[in-house]
Specification:
Radius of gyration: 15 Å
Number of helices: 2
Number of strands: 8
Distance between the termini: 24 Å
CATH architecture of the largest domain: Roll
Largest sheet: 4 strands, mixed
CATH class of the largest domain: Alpha Beta
Strand order of the largest sheet: 1-4-3-2
Order of helices and strands: EHEEEEHEEE
Shape: globular
CATH topology of the largest domain: 2,3-Dihydroxybiphenyl 1,2-Dioxygenase, domain 1
Structural class: alpha/beta
Strand content: 35-45%
Number of domains: 2
Helix content: 10-25%
CATH superfamily of the largest domain: 2,3-Dihydroxybiphenyl 1,2-Dioxygenase, domain 1
């Protein structure tokens, strides 16, 4: 039945800052960018290399969402990478705070966390 994720939707507080982060720093490809005048809102469709997508939205006066590691709801978004060390260093060189690299006790795979401009927890997971 379910085959993969089609997209994940994110509402950001500062559209230009988040657009720069997801496109220029993380390197996601822009599929489409639309300004919706009636909503005074942007919708940016982004693609990962495998075709999965992130929709980035801006809405006026969107309330902040608390993001605690163990809060109920979506915990984080995880991106598969070939080398944790290379991507972690790249992000740090771009001024992004990245947690120390850890090893998953069950899979023995390396992983680490960082945040987007609004504090959304993002994970790198080495395949």
């Amino acid at each position: 039945m379910l085959k993969s994720f089609h997209h994940v939707a994110i509402i950001c507080s500062n559209y230009e800052v988040s657009k720069h982060f997801y496109t220029s720093i993380l390197g996601l490809k822009v599929i489409a960018e639309n300004y919706r005048e009636k909503r005074n809102s942007y919708k940016l469709d982004l693609s990962l290399p495998n075709g999965e997508q992130i929709e980035l939205f801006s809405f006026e006066n969107a309330p902040p969402r608390p993001s605690f590691p163990e809060a109920q709801g979506l915990r984080h978004l995880a991106f598969a990478v070939d080398s944790i060390e290379i991507v972690s260093k790249y992000l740090q060189d771009a001024g992004i705070d990245v947690e120390p690299i850890r090893v998953d006790e069950y899979t023995q795979r390396k992983f680490t966390f960082f945040s987007d401009p609004d504090g959304l927890p993002l994970e790198l997971y080495e395949q």
